[in-house]
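1st attempt posting a full record on here, be nice pls
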Amino acid sequence: MQAIKAIIADDEDQLRSYLKSRLSDVWPELIISGEARNGQEALEMIRKTHPHIAFLDIRMPGLSGMDVAKKIGGSCWVVFITAYDQYAVEAFESEAIDYLLKPVTRERLE
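the predicted structure (as tokens):
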């Protein structure tokens, strides 16, 4: 079975670390192949590493998570992570597979 790879993109260092730790707890076989601090880094990382899943913050410097999702055109699954619930409809229209509100709980990740 092929290992599942993911990237995490969020402009908050603590959130990236927290999410990486929680994902490791609930999904130990998941490989985090990179972390991005903004939308442009996320886009480049997705194009370079070809992850299966991209965990994207909605509001990031430069390109937003929504912008990134539109630019990658379904090349990987997208899970949005945000403090803003008002983007949920747009997120699912961008073919997101999930929409997690901060702070992300272990139970929600499971």
